[in-house]
Structures are given as structure tokens and as C-alpha cells.
Specification:
The chain is mainly β. The chain contains one helix and twelve strands, in the order βαβββββββββββ. The strands form three sheets. Strands 3, 4, 5, 6, 7, 8, 9 and 10 form an eight-stranded antiparallel β-sheet that branches. A two-stranded antiparallel ribbon has the order 1-2. A two-stranded antiparallel sheet has the order 11-12. The longest helix is centred in the N-terminal third of the chain and has 10 residues. The chain is globular and about 45 Å long. The N terminus and C terminus are likely disordered.
Length: 197
């Protein structure tokens, strides 16, 4: 969803940021497209009846498939992770988890131990909370599925790595904005979350 800037916001922006043209459009974080098959998924491991692509939001395996409708790391994986390569820079705002689908649907929990991101596909840095400490762990139980895990501030990433607790299994979607969007506007590289409809 993109909102047209209102004239009253332009007046406010003179004092808070920089003068913004009246036709500037703002990008509100939306699905990055994992559900649609976009972007590459890799993982530290996968159980025998799973693979990273099974982690895509709303994915359902055929009834005759031996695969489960979610990603689950191997039971021997002590520090499991799953990674998204967007192939371009995105401003990341939140992650939404979903339980396994189909006959595997269950009330399993997800432990998000931490989040790392990279701008260049080679070096990763951890996402920090508002106090400067490592983000996580965050426990997402069955009642919180379909509810986004909001980051306290957006961050720019080409790759996003989720460090997961052993035994977790899930599907997920990432919400954000591609920085290549013609309608993109940000102030100092930060998503302007104060824009209202």
C-alpha cells in the first residue's frame, strides 16, 4: 500500500525533516513475496521430509507428497537458521510466522533466537534491540501465529537470517519495501513510520 502525502504533512516536514514535494509517495511495508515464490531460501539443515522452500507462507504440499507443509531443521542441528536472499535491498519491518499447514497443522511453538542481516551477501551483522543488546529470543506460540513480529525500527538488508530454536517448525513471510521502488521515500535511510493515511 502506498499513500499520497497530504499537504498538511508537507508543512510539518519543513520543521521535522526536509521539504518534500507535494507529489511524494510513501511506501508502507508489505509482503516481500515469499508466499508467491519470490526470493531464494536456504537453511542450515532440514528434516528428511522438509526443505527450506516449504517455509514459504501458505505453502501446502500435495496430498501424495512425502514433504511436510513447513520447514523443520534436522533434529541434529544445534544452531538452526533459515535465510532469505532478496537479491536487492529491502527495508525490513516485520516477520509473520505461520504454523505447519495441511495434515501437519499443530500448535507447535517457534523460538526466534536472533536476527542477522547482510547488505553484500558476504558479511552479516546482528539486529539489536532498542537498548543496543542482541534481539531475541522471542517465543511465538500458537496463539501468536499470523501476528507479525514487529522490529522496533526498520533496517536495510539484502539477506535476512533467522536463528531458530531447535525443534521449531513453521512457515513465514517478511514484510518490507524494496528500495528500488519508484514510489519509495525515506529520510536518512529510515522508513518514515509517521506517515498517516
Amino acid at each position: 500500500m502506498r499513500w499520497q502525502a497530504q499537504s498538511q504533512w508537507v508543512i510539518i516536514s519543513i520543521f521535522l525533516f526536509t521539504v518534500t514535494p507535494s507529489n511524494t509517495q510513501y511506501c508502507y511495508p508489505e509482503s516481500t513475496g515469499l508466499e508467491d515464490g519470490d526470493h531464494q531460501l536456504t537453511a542450515s539443515s532440514a528434516s528428511d521430509n522438509s526443505n527450506p522452500d516449504n517455509a514459504r507462507y501458505d505453502v501446502i504440499q500435495p496430498l501424495d507428497s512425502q514433504q511436510i507443509s513447513c520447514w523443520q531443521p534436522a533434529s541434529t542441528d544445534v544452531f538452526p537458521w533459515i535465510q532469505v536472499d532478496f537479491t536487492q535491498l529491502y527495508d525490513i519491518g516485520s516477520i509473520q510466522f505461520q504454523e505447519c499447514g495441511g495434515t501437519e497443522s499443530s500448535s507447535s511453538n517457534v523460538i526466534l533466537n536472533g536476527v542477522e542481516y547482510s547488505l553484500d551477501a558476504s558479511s552479516f551483522q546482528p539486529f539489536l534491540d532498542s537498548n543496543g543488546a542482541l534481539f531475541g529470543p522471542v517465543r511465538i506460540d500458537s496463539s501468536q501465529f499470523e501476528t507479525p513480529v514487529e522490529f522496533w525500527k526498520p533496517f536495510v538488508a539484502r539477506q535476512l537470517k533467522l536463528n531458530i530454536g531447535s525443534g521449531s517448525k513453521f512457515r513465514f513471510e517478511v514484510f518490507g519495501c524494496a528500495q528500488t521502488s519508484n514510489d519509495w521515500y525515506c529520510d536518512g535511510g529510515v522508513i518514515d513510520t509517521n506517515v498517516s493515511a
